[in-house]
Amino acid sequence: MTTLFTDVYMSPRLLAPGGTPADLTTHEQRYGPLGYGDPAALLRTLAESGLTGRGGAGFPAYRKFVAVTDSARRTERAPIVVANGAESEPASRKDRTLLRLSPHLVLDGLQLAAEAVGAAEAYLAVEEGASYLESALAQRRDPVRVQVVRLPARFLSGQASALVQYLSGGPARPAHPVPPVRERGVRRAPTLVQNVETLAHLALVARYGADWFRSAGTPGEPGSTLCTLHVPGREVRVVEAPFGMPVGRLLPLEGASAALVGGYHGTWIPAAEAAQVPLASSYLGAGVLAALPADRCGLTETARVLRYLALQSAGQCGPCLNGLPRMAAAFQTLAVPGPQGTARTDISRWAGLVEGRGACHHPDGTIRLVRSALTTFTTELDAHAHGHCTATDRTPVLPVPTEEI
Amino acid sequence: MDQHIDIDWTSCQGHGLCAELLPEHITLDEWGYPLVDGRPVPPRTRKRARRAAADCPVLALKLREG
Predict the structure, then answer these.
(1) pLDDT tens sequence across A105-123
(2) Are A181 and A300 members of one domain?
(3) Within an 8 Å CB–CB cutoff, is residue A357 touching chain B?
(4) I need a labelling partner for A42 at 20 to 30 A (CA). Which of A95, A392, B18, B19 fits?
């Protein structure tokens, strides 16, 4: 169960208040009607808003929209728009929470995106809740038809090129990024893939304008973002917070030794430092924040996540296929107190070998986690080398779907 | 315009012919997969680079402009 404390950090923009799903009537009462008919003005407003993708990469939405429109003009093919609600990251709950509470905000955004790029077809891709979303769709009278697609629950299913392959009738596996999906995506048409939260923000930008959007966040990174908070002993929470807010104001770090910022492709940061770090898309990923209590072992946590990440490799790219399982095995050696042999140097070398050598960012994200663990947990590494672990509680903190392993 | 070596990692199976044909740009890692130096291919090497692209058994190596 996920709880919501949406009003703690800012008045909520995206999530329906009270944790009650908003049907179409409630949605329209709350946000007002949506205007269509001027794609050029919508694109201008989107550019002024500075909205960036909320799926993890933080790429400016406007630039992606323009790239897709340009490709469509060049290839004379109508583009396709995909709302990405895959949320394959096991620790993230923000997209499914948004889709459950405010489905119509996402569907509004999807229609606007289709209008802005001139698409006649749209998809909403999710791992769960497809029938709920289909009934939400049935309440609406949208200009562009939307098809809800159920994705296989794999870590890489939500990767844009994997999504595009799947929607084209292939496997949900990442593809070589040349040409990019914005040029050749679903059934070779120029394709705009946007995270569902990005589309929900777009629905509000279209209604209230760029200045309103920029009234939260920082000038460099305007707006707010949904985060999933993991604090051991408490329920997992999804909150909306403005960019620039220190992580410590969102995530209680008393009694914590470190925080994982940005999920399983993210960064371990020592608690004292993490408390001061402002929310920024460069390392926030898809918004997962987790506190590691001082009585737990960060190496054990990392080893468990790494094993999962290695098994979730699509197994297509040699460096990832070879490097990730070896790193995971060596990290398991480090997680157990006792002789470490060459594990540390091996991991560093393999990290260098997988970096940038894959079709998707799975190897790069994985080594970000590995490297930050080796830096943040140095003291614990040395303790393990001397045969003891400082942790007293072995209960896992980070969720890993065991049935997949 | 400069030419760069581009590997389609989803296709590459580590046959290693590219490293034999273009040793000044490509070596093999400990698992047999190409490590590309990232430098542009100079005009005097382009013929061999084209051959490396054509001879790759799975056509995973491409020459990319820019």
Answers:
(1) 999 999 999 999 999 999 9
(2) no
(3) yes
(4) A95
